[in-house]
Write a structure and sequence with these properties.
By secondary structure, the chain is an alpha/beta fold. It is 28% helix and 29% strand. It folds into 3 domains: 70 residues, Archaeosine Trna-guanine Transglycosylase, Chain: A, domain 4 (Roll), CATH 2.30.130; 98 residues, RNA methyltransferase domain (HRMD) like (Transcription Regulator spoIIAA), CATH 3.30.750.80; 209 residues, Rossmann fold, CATH 3.40.50.150. Helix 9 runs parallel beside helix 10 and helix 10 crosses helix 11.
């Protein structure tokens, strides 16, 4: 079956030649290929603007989205079908099996694993997938079949509840689409054991992207009093306790997340050193300062304060405020772990926020370790959006 054809405007193929895989709606020659002639998610062949057009590859289109076409293959003979899904899953799996000795990781990271619109996290025999585009949604049955063939999981969960789907005109839902989901879904990270709330937790239930940063943090935690802010299920705080922290206090606004902290602390035999505190992070930090609380380490892993460019100013102010408040709670020679998952907060901007916050308090700051997302979240060199995570382990000292 011949694919529908999408023609590009003059010079609109430059980014594709450079390795990018997105085509924006304003880059399409709508005289030759009117957007109204396509269905959301439809498979297409992409051609450039030459007098004798060259086929650039295949992908799928959503005429209602700003990112109109997402490329799937540079080879015009390959289209997004079950066979290609199986092949790409096997290629992704081969990397993860080289990296990790146990099956707990992000298996597919969208464009970086050449499967745009698909994220897959693995929790042993349980697989949790997120589909974020109309093109991938049309392939849902084939995705499930491919995952069953490659991984043979006991259960597959679709966490299709991301607000990103709304931009593609898709509804949101969560569904166990294959097998029987066990009561408790386990994962291991850096030797620690956790229950992951894959049905009701954030995203897929866990954030594997900080695995390496949490490992680096654990090298500093021994004998320290630690405050883990925005703790979620305790990924940072419990690993700090396992590394020998004398006390860990996990702060989160979600009672459910903190219940998981308690459960996960028991799993790791550190319940005697892990406590929880429910509340808004900014209010808790303010109250702790008023109570003259002090910690040897404060961990900040907040949600994205800058989800869209229009949030830039208020988001940067939030990052500045929370980092300054954290520094105020640190002992004279304290460790601050400061992270951001906001794509729109640049690395240099976060460094400047850390610098300015420390100077505002008349304290000196040393950056000891700079971290990024783990290798199961590979970065596509042509797509800046795939490099989103920043993490800094800092030493905060008195000014002298």
């Amino acid at each position: 079956m011949a694919l529908a054809q999408v023609y590009l405007k003059k010079n609109a193929d430059r980014r594709l030649h450079a390795g990018h895989s997105w085509i924006y709606s304003n880059e399409i020659d709508t005289q030759k290929s009117p957007l109204t002639s396509f269905q959301a998610g439809q498979a297409v062949q992409v051609l450039n603007h030459d007098a004798t057009p060259t086929v650039m590859g295949t992908g799928y289109i959503n005429p209602h989205s700003l990112i109109s076409v997402r490329m799937v293959s540079r080879d015009p003979d390959y289209v997004l079908d079950r066979s290609l899904l199986v092949h790409r899953l096997n290629v992704a799996l081969s990397l993860r099996e080289r990296l990790f000795d146990k099956p707990y990781y992000r298996l597919v990271f969208g464009e970086s694993d050449f499967l745009p619109g698909l994220v897959v996290d693995r929790f042993g025999d349980v697989v949790v997938a997120q589909i974020t585009t109309a093109g991938m949604e049309l392939m849902k049955d084939d995705i499930i079949a491919a995952l069953e063939k490659v991984l043979k999981p006991t259960a597959i969960v679709l966490r299709n509840d991301s607000t990103i789907r709304e931009l593609e005109g898709l509804t949101t839902y969560t569904e166990v689409v294959s097998g029987i989901l066990p009561t408790d879904v386990f994962l291991e990270e850096n030797g620690a054991k956790f229950h992951a709330p894959v049905l009701l937790g954030q995203k897929t239930g866990w954030f594997y992207d900080h695995r390496m940063n949490r490992l680096q943090m654990s090298h500093f935690a021994k004998d320290l009093r630690v405050l883990d802010v925005f703790s979620y299920c305790g990924g940072w705080g419990i690993q700090a306790a396992r590394a020998g922290a004398s006390q860990v206090c996990c702060v989160d606004s979600s009672k459910t997340a903190l219940a998981h902290v308690v459960e996960n602390a028991a799993l790791n035999n550190v319940s005697d050193r892990v406590s929880t505190l429910e509340g808004d992070a900014f209010e808790v930090l303010k109250q702790m300062r008023q109570s003259h609380e002090k910690f040897d380490m404060v961990i900040l892993d907040p949600p994205a304060f800058i989800k869209r460019k229009k949030d830039q100013r208020t988001g940067e102010q939030a990052y500045r405020r929370v980092n300054q408040m954290a520094m105020q709670l640190l002992n004279k020679d304290g460790i601050l772990v400061s992270a951001s998952c906001s794509l729109h907060l640049g690395r240099d901007t976060l460094v400047d926020i850390l610098r300015a916050s420390s100077r505002h308090l008349d304290r000196n700051l040393q950056i000891l370790i700079e971290g990024h997302q783990g290798p199961d979240h590979p970065i596509h060199p042509a797509i800046a959006e795939t490099a989103y995570l920043k993490s800094f382990i800092c030493r905060v000292l008195p000014s002298s």
